[in-house]
Amino acid sequence: TGYIKLMRHKDRKFFCDSRRKKMKIAIIDQQHIFREGLERLIEVEADVKIVASIPNVSELTEEQIEEIDLFLIDIKEIENEKKFINQHILKNHKHKKLVALSNDTNKPAITEAVLAGCHGFLLKEMSYPSFIKAVRTIFEEGGYIHPQVLRHLIDDYRDLSKANNGAVNRSNISKETKRICTSRENEILQL
To answer: Is pLDDT at 114 greater than 50 in this prediction?
Structure first.
């Protein structure tokens, strides 16, 4: 049986639930200072282990990929390394979680992250307590989308769902949303 105990680290109090499975993560971002800062914040978390902190996802070894539960990946890296992510992570490791990290909420980036198979979309501007809570939510429950990002997804979904005489009102759908549908899906939606 586990227990919850109060731990101290550099004048910071936090609770650790020993029943929690230790989460093994990778931080993948081109900005060294961001990776290092995130590492320093995360290292005090008793239930989190950083397996890799690297600028490019393609630097991961197969052994590291096997060990990692959750990949925190900058959105630009997801866009640049889709093939590697699909072949080496998603194809053979369906239980692994991908989380997009971004500085902004532009719709094309959100769409790319969703299509790439991300389980979460977090903004780098988040406070650390909100960030680590979101990471734990993704790990334990399967997903989390930052509220500013979720607004765009809801708008696109709403636009897709609007009906006009039984047909979807395609004039209100953003270009990004239209782009995610295959040509056959677009034909069906026009019926």
So the answer is: yes
Give the C-alpha separation, 68 to 60, whole Å.
Answer: 10
CB neighbourhood size of 49 (10 A)? 15
Query: Would you say 96 and 57 are in contact if contact means Cβ atoms under 8 Å apart?
Result: no
Kindly indicate the confidence band of residue 82, based on its pLDDT and cuts at 50, 70 and 90. Answer: confident
pLDDT above 70: residue 164: no
- What is the sign of the dihedral through the CA atoms of 51, 17, 11 and 31? positive
- Which stretch, 53-67, 88-102, 105-119, has highest mean pLDDT? 53-67
Please give the C-alpha separations between residue 136 and each of 24, 123, 144, 175, in angstroms, as whole numbers.
11, 15, 9, 33
And the tokens for 75? 């959105």
* Cα gap 165→175, rounded to integer Å: 22
* Amino acid type, 86: N
The pTM for the full model equals 0.74
